[in-house]
Amino acid sequence: MTWLAIAGSALVTYLIRAFAFRVALPSPLPRRVARYLDALPAAIIAALAGPAVLVPNGSPTRGPELAAAIVVIAAVGWRRNLLAGVLAGVAVVALLRLVLPA
Amino acid sequence: MFPQRSALVEGWPVLTTVLVVGIPFGIVARQSGLSPAEIVAMSVFVFAGASQFAMVQLFKDGAAWPVIVVTVLLINLRHLLMAAALRPYFAHVSIARRLAAAFVLTDEAFAMAIGWFRRGRTELAYYATFAVALYILWNAATVIGMLLGPSIGEPRRFGVDFAITATFIAIVVLGVRRRADAIVAVTAALIATALAYLGVSIVAVVTAGALAPLLVLLIRDEPAT
Prior knowledge:
The complex is a heterodimer of chains A (102) and B (225). With 102 residues, chain A is mostly helical. Helix content of chain A is 77%, strand content 0%. In chain A, helix 3 (64-79) packs antiparallel against helix 4 (82-99). Chain B contains eleven helices and no strands. In chain B, helix 3 packs antiparallel against helix 4 (65-76) and helix 7 (107-118) packs antiparallel against helix 8 (125-148). Chain B is globular and about 55 Å long. Classes of the chains: A mainly alpha (102), B mainly alpha (225).
C-alpha cells in the first residue's frame, strides 16, 4: 500500500517533469489553462490544511489549531519565511494545548 | 565566473531553506510511523517537497494509494508549465540529458535557471549544478530529520503533529501572489473542511481542492504582484 503510493507518486511526478522537456506544448498555453495550473497546487494544499486546522481528527478544533494557523499566516505574511512561520505555529499549538484542559 | 560557481554563490540562500524544510519533513514523516526506507524512497524518487508533506498527511488519514497518487499528480502538474518554459534552452542537448534535467526539476531550480537565462546566459551547467545540489541537500536533510524524529518525544505534546499543517499554510501563503489566489485557497480550505466534517472520504476533499481553482477563470484577472 505505502510502497504503491510512493512508486505511483514518483512515476507521475517524473512523467510530468519529463513530458514538457520531451514534447513541445502549444506555446504559449491557453491563458485559462495556465491560470488554472498556476492556482492548482495552493488550492490542493489548502484543501489538506483546512480540515487539519478546523476539524483535526474529525471533531471541531478546541482552539489551539485555529490560533496557531492565524499565527502562521501572520508570521509568513510578514517575514516571507517558511521556517519562522512553522516554528511559531508549532510553539503556539504546544503552549495552548498545555494551558487548555484536554 | 564559472556557471557552476555562480549557481552555488547565487543559490545558497535557497539551498539553506531546502535544508531547513527537509529536516522537519524527515521528523514528521518518521513520527507519522513511516519506515526509514519509505521516507528515504520518497525523497530519492518523488523528490517534491510539498507533495511529500501531503503524502505524509494522507498516509496518516489512511487514504488509499490511488488517492495519494492523484493528489501528488495535481500538486505537481505545475511542473508542466515550468518544463515547457525551460525546454527551448535545452533544445540542443540529447534526449538523455533532457530527461535527466527533468528528474531534478523543482520550483526552486526553475526560478534560478530562468533568472540565469534571462541574463542572456546559456550554460546549462548552472541549472544542473543548482538542481543537483538541491537534490543532495534535500535527501541529506530528510535523513537528518528522520534520525532526529524518534528523539523528539511525544509529538502531540510538543505540537510537532501540527508541523505538517503549519508547513501547508506557509506554502499557501507564500504562493499567494494575486487576490484571486487567496480567494481560491480560502474557498478550497473551507469546502474541504465542510466535507471532512461531514465525514466524506478524502477523495472528495482532494476533489474540492482541484475544483476551487476554476474560480480564477471567473475572477477578473490582475497582474501578479
